């Protein structure tokens, strides 16, 4: 299985700009998940709150990463592969829609080519 990766993107009608990318580093640190590394890198670059930004990931994020994405206030998450063991954005849990949280975000999975469509929107 390829390492988990995450990319932070600012999307606009004119262009999409990659702001930050991150890989998982769990061999060195149990908290080294790609989404957590991405949020930390973005914060280090002055992007403390990720309002309006999009995150792209290879696999569906776990519970811890999903909560980090919610707290970071991303706009949308896209991922390619569902994760049956701990996927928390549509498979095992749906953190992105939890009413108890004060921020929710849209989730799309299965492909990036039709990312503006609603067909692949996770439940
Ligand atoms: Zn994670």
TrEMBL record:
<dbReference type="GO" id="GO:0052717">
    <property type="term" value="F:tRNA-specific adenosine-34 deaminase activity"/>
</dbReference>
<protein>
    <recommendedName>
        <fullName>CMP/dCMP-type deaminase domain-containing protein</fullName>
    </recommendedName>
</protein>
<dbReference type="GO" id="GO:0008033">
    <property type="term" value="P:tRNA processing"/>
</dbReference>
<dbReference type="Pfam" id="PF00383">
    <property type="entry name" value="dCMP_cyt_deam_1"/>
</dbReference>
<dbReference type="InterPro" id="IPR016193">
    <property type="entry name" value="Cytidine_deaminase-like"/>
</dbReference>
<dbReference type="GO" id="GO:0005634">
    <property type="term" value="C:nucleus"/>
</dbReference>
<comment type="similarity">
    <text>Belongs to the cytidine and deoxycytidylate deaminase family. ADAT3 subfamily.</text>
</comment>
<dbReference type="GO" id="GO:0005737">
    <property type="term" value="C:cytoplasm"/>
</dbReference>
<dbReference type="InterPro" id="IPR002125">
    <property type="entry name" value="CMP_dCMP_dom"/>
</dbReference>
<feature type="domain" description="CMP/dCMP-type deaminase">
    <location>
        <begin position="1"/>
        <end position="108"/>
    </location>
</feature>
<keyword id="KW-0819">tRNA processing</keyword>
